[in-house]
Amino acid sequence: MNKKAEIQFPCRWEYRLFAQAETVDKTKAAVTAIGEAENTRFEIADGSSSGSGKYAALRVSCEVDCIEKARSLATLLGKAEGVRFLL
Length: 87
Prior knowledge:
With 87 residues, the chain is an alpha+beta fold. Helices cover 30% and strands 36% of the residues. It has helices at residues 24-37, 67-78, and strands spanning 11-20, 43-49, 55-64, 83-86. The chain has a 4-stranded antiparallel β-sheet with strand order 2-3-1-4, covered by helices on one side. A hairpin with a 5-residue loop joins strand 2 (43-49) and strand 3 (55-64). The longest helix has 14 residues, at 24-37. The radius of gyration is 14 Å and the shape is globular. It starts with 10 loop residues before the first strand and ends with a strand. The model has no long low-confidence stretch (mean pLDDT 94).
């Protein structure tokens, strides 16, 4: 029988954002502002750029205490300036 792994909260949650390369600094600032508004400390790390250099990846991680918080943050991060795609 296959058992689904349960997520134990609180836990570290990571999002991968893909933003337009020319606005990546504004995207980082927007992510920081979301964290401040949500009383959440995000760690932001640069990822790889696309082959064409048009998009840049960012890894954004934080501590969450429930799945609802993780989903809420995902919604907000997906709407941040310059974000084109969120995983």
